[in-house]
Design a protein that fits this description.
The protein has three helices and no strands. The longest helix is centred in the last third of the chain and has 18 residues. It has about 40 residues and is mostly helical. Keywords: Membrane, Transmembrane, Transmembrane helix.
């Protein structure tokens, strides 16, 4: 289940290449993408 989620999150270029250098911004983007995936599933 975790591996599937990380695979789906890597479709988001912003997360895969880690544009955000600060940890708090990266965590926020992860939360946003995970929420978006949950709502569209």
């Amino acid at each position: 289940m975790i591996e599937c989620l990380s695979g789906k999150l890597k479709y988001y270029r912003r997360i895969a290449s880690r544009y955000e250098k600060k940890v708090i911004h990266f965590k926020g983007m992860l939360a946003f993408a995970a929420t978006f995936l949950q709502l569209t599933a």
